[in-house]
Amino acid sequence: MGVIFHEAEPPFRTMTVTTARAARQRELSRVTVNAVRLEAEFTSEPFHGEGSPPEHAVAARDAAREAGLDTDFGPLGTLARGEADALLEALPTITKAALDGGATRVTLQVRRADDAGATPAVELNDALARLIADVERELGAKLGELDRAGKQRAVRLLRERGAFELRRSVSSVAGALGVTRFTVYNYLNRETR
């Protein structure tokens, strides 16, 4: 039995049949997807008291900025915001910059910036105001009127009650105490030793 090959017609043509499902998938692929935005709050130790922020905090902030992230800078804590991919890709660089800058510890929290369930800042400020008022009643004076030992005790009480878990609380507490944020961080550092 032999096989005979012969060229019958020109190469065959393909025909595309668009089904309803394929058309729908093409339409969905054209929909613009909102990118997820994240916030990363990182703190580095050791804390410093009054004066310039520590080199490790500045190095971490600079690494975040170089990665194209928006930053809010504090003496030991920095908040970086950006698209999820960019932020997650930058975290090792930020951490390395802090450690290379002399940090002995870097603590990191990451959260979605678009979290609809997040508590509004007004409620957090009200909660902090209530905590400060409670401590003032307990100590019998406004925080700004306390002596240094009293201010240190106030910071300890506020820490024990979770005040420093609230966003931007250090600045608010520093204002109430009549000291700088660096001083509050210094008081907090003494409490953790």
Q: How would you characterize the overall build of this protein?
A:
By secondary structure, the chain is of the alpha+beta class. It has 2 domains: 37-112, Alpha-Beta Plaits (2-Layer Sandwich); 121-191, no CATH class. Helices cover 47% and strands 15% of the residues. It has helices at 20-29, 55-66, 84-100, 121-139, 148-160, 169-177, 181-191; strands spanning 37-45, 70-73, 77-83, 105-112. The longest helix is centred in the last third of the chain and has 19 residues, at 121-139. The model is unreliable at 11-18, 28-33 and 118-124 (pLDDT under 50).
Please give the CATH class of the largest domain.
Answer: Alpha Beta
**Principal-axis shape:** globular
SSE class: alpha+beta
How many structural domains? 2
User: How many E-type strands?
Assistant: 4
| End-to-end distance | 94 Å
> Which fold name is given in CATH as the topology of the largest domain?
Alpha-Beta Plaits
Which percent range fits the helix content? 40-55%
Order of helices and strands: HEHEEHEHHHH
Low-confidence stretches: 11-18, 28-33, 118-124
Q: What is the alpha-carbon Rg in Å?
A: 28 Å
SS element count, helices: 7
Major β-sheet, in short? Answer: 4 strands, antiparallel
CATH architecture group name of the largest domain? 2-Layer Sandwich
How is the secondary structure organized here?
Layout: H1 20-29, E1 37-45, H2 55-66, E2 70-73, E3 77-83, H3 84-100, E4 105-112, H4 121-139, H5 148-160, H6 169-177, H7 181-191
Antiparallel strand pairs: 1-3, 1-4, 2-3
